[in-house]
Amino acid sequence: MSRHAHTGDAEAREPLLTGDHLQLNELDSDEEGEVIFDRSASNVTRDAGASAQRKLTFEEAVEEAGFGLFHWLLLVACGWANASDAVEILCVSFLLPTARCDLLLSSSDMGLLTASIFLGMMVGGYVWGYLADQRGRCRVLVVSLTVNGLFGSLASIAPWFWLFLLLRFISGIGVGGSIPVIFSYFSEFMPRLRRGAMISALATFWMAGNILAAGLAWLVIPSSWAHFSVGRLHFQSWRVFVVLCSVPSLTSAVLFKLLMPESPKFLMEAGREEEAIHVFRLMSELNMWRKGKALPEFGLCISSKQRGKLDERKTWGSHKERLSDIIKKGLAPVKQMFNGPLKSRSLVLLIVFYCISFSYYGLWMWFPELFARIEDGGSPCADVSRPSPLSNQSCYPVKTAVYIEGFIIAASNLPGNIFTVLVMDSTGGKALLTCSLLTSSLSVFLIYVVKTKTQSLILSCVFSGVSVIAWNALDVLGTELYPTQLRSSALGFFTGVGRVAAITGNVVFGNLVDTNCAVPVLLVSALLLTGGFVALFLPQTRQTELT
Predict the structure, then answer these.
(1) In angstroms, what CA-CA distances link 12 with 230, 336, 345, 426, 434?
(2) Is the torsion defined by CA of 255, 261, 264, 265 positive or negative?
């Protein structure tokens, strides 16, 4: 991609990766031999007609459009979509203490149920990410959010466990698309100097989704008014809760379909200059509202290579050749990620995503069930002789304390989110990621050690508040470590890796929680420790330009 030359700026303004072809002889390396900056792209010539109209790079156009109302509205829209994903994922964990009786679930069945949505996210993550890089961010977000909300709500009327499991799996396919794409989409509107803080602010909406899911569970599941019958189906309160959890995804899909523009960075990479300029003008109009300023005429530095790719699609041959081409193109981003200058950072992120996803989702999805088991006191692993839910064991009346504790743990995300927003741009994602993973490891180990319910709750809140810092740091690092043509695919791939880890974590918890609870809890602590040390090998990306 043609880039405009920058002068007199510090090294922090240089992009991590740039240019259409990464040649090792054109790249500078850091002291450990890892390629970080491409210097050759700064020697750029302008078109012959550039004197008549300014040609701006993406970063320059974003700066010209200003920062203001548009970005805050964008934060609300993308934040609501991010919160909807959190609600859809976490709703299963809150319905387990009651749904296990109605659906006759063993602990292993509950492990499969919590894993099903992550299996769907693993399938959807890379597919939707690839489609977002090829077809556009906004379009993919609309479809994935619709799939999420539609099949999530249909699960509420499933009378059998395996049908409920299937519908949650399909809902997970939708969630797998919106999570990685929403951060790519959002970051591609942000000015460089505000990008870290704004992505951290977007990540805080996951906490809002946590609190919303916990609050709905607290209000709806223990309530007697939420019980009624539809034909032969007895609609228990947890089914009403499942329907309510699908509403944020469906409303987000409508919002993106009707109001949200396509990413200008994607439009530039696709060679759609006029559409990109229109988006920049929309940004400027909202940001400069009541200020009396107008965006001057300008052009954009558009990648001619991307124009050529669009023309190639029209010359495809037979269906067999087309299928082969689709498969090759679909796997191409992975090959790029694990070759050349991207290889080392991709390997590190793969390990970190696996460690934190196994640990966070393996433990978090079982918090309500674990606290139900220590309702009479003791540590989460103290009562290992509890009978299977398939025995004659009643789930009613519902114990409200379980949901109050879930709400408290969800709310404990708030300090970590505020801290991240305040220090992300000054400290950088790498340092925050490492420190939060190491601290999370210690808190989980102490959860196993303590002997009282109060101590377990306090340490669970510490784990919640600290681990969210690691997730926020990963959101920032993931968007800044890869170029535009790989960004959504890379995030989708690592999201898929994380889902494999989440599936493994939930299956391990489901199979061992009744017999040897110490093994999964201590394994979580060990994996978080490993992820913290491995994260030290990532490059620093503080205030880096998007490429």
Answers:
(1) 61, 24, 18, 12, 21
(2) positive
CA atoms within 13 A on the CB side of 450: 19
**Tokens at residue 153, please?**
């709500």
Separation of alpha carbons 481 and 531, rounded Å: 18
The secondary element (H helix, E strand) that includes residue 56 is strand 55-56
Whole-angstrom distance, CA of residue 219 vs CA of residue 65: 44
Please report the DSSP string for 396-418 in residue order: -S--HHHHHHHHHHHHTHHHHHH
Q: pLDDT by residue (tens digit) across 208-245? A: 888 898 888 888 888 766 666 666 666 778 888 899 99
Contact 332, 133 (CB under 8 A): no
- Which two structure tokens, joined as six digits, stand for 144? 């994935």
Q: Give residue-wise pLDDT tens across range 56-73.
A: 888 888 888 888 889 999
Quick one: pLDDT at residue 324? 67
Instruction: Pick left, alpha or beta for residue 423 (phi over 0 → left; psi -120 to 50 → alpha; otherwise beta).
Output: alpha
Q: What residues contact 273, with CB distance under 8 A and at least 6 apart?
A: 267, 299, 300, 302
Note the pLDDT tens digit of each residue in 379-431. 566 554 444 444 445 566 667 777 788 888 888 888 888 888 888 777 778 88
**Mean pLDDT rounded to a whole number for the chain:** 76
Distance between CA atoms of 199 and 544, rounded to whole angstroms?
Answer: 13
Contact 453, 377 (CB under 8 A): yes
Other Cβ atoms within 10 Å of 397 Cβ, number = 9
Q: What is the arithmetic mean of pLDDT over 311-329? A: 57
In DSSP terms, 29 is beta-bridged to 35
Q: Quickly tell me which residue has 């599941």 as its tokens.
A: 221
